[in-house]
Amino acid sequence: MANIRTGFSKLTPTGVLNLLGNVIEKLAENATIFTDPPIPLAALTVLETALDSLIHKADQGSANSKALRDNKVKQVLSALSATAAYVRMVANGDAGI
Questions:
Q1: Which residues contact 6 (CB under 8 A, 6 or more apart)?
Q2: CB–CB of 69/57 below 8 Å?
Q3: What is the number of other CB atoms lying within 10 angstroms of the CB of residue 83?
Q4: Which residues contact 41 (CB under 8 A, 6 or more apart)?
Q5: Sign of the alpha-carbon torsion through 25, 88, 10, 42
Q6: pTM for the predicted model, two decimal places
Q7: Which of 26, 33, 34, 43 has its CA 20 to 30 A from that of 96?
Q8: Contact assessment for residue 24 and residue 43, using Cβ atoms and an 8 Å cutoff
């Protein structure tokens, strides 16, 4: 049975952003298979835009901007975990999906 490995804890905020972008792209490409994700693609895209903005603001340095970025990262990781569980369920062990 195929398994989706998350390994989220090792990702930097930029790594989380890149992963989110990849997930959005792959879900869109396979919309006929993954028809009802727990977090709609539009909502994932909003999270992607917000995280990108917060990463850039945090690069400029204030503790508050870094805290906002880190909170958004937690939100994104939660959305990615829910999406991974959904993909795992729909794929039902088929690594080809």
A1: 80, 81, 84
A2: yes
A3: 21
A4: 24, 27, 28, 31
A5: positive
A6: 0.88
A7: 43
A8: no
Is residue 55 within 8 A of residue 69, CB to CB? The reply is yes
For residue 12, count CB atoms less than 10 angstroms from its CB and return exposed for 0-12, middle for 13-18, buried for 19 or more: exposed
CB 74 within 8 A of CB 47: no
Please identify which residue in the block is written with the tokens 């998350």.
Answer: 6
- pLDDT tens, residue by residue, 66-76: 999 999 999 99
Average pLDDT, the chain: 91
Instruction: Tell me how far apart the alpha carbons of residues 6 and 18 are, in angstroms, rounded to a whole number.
Output: 13
d(C-alpha 30, C-alpha 51), whole Å = 24
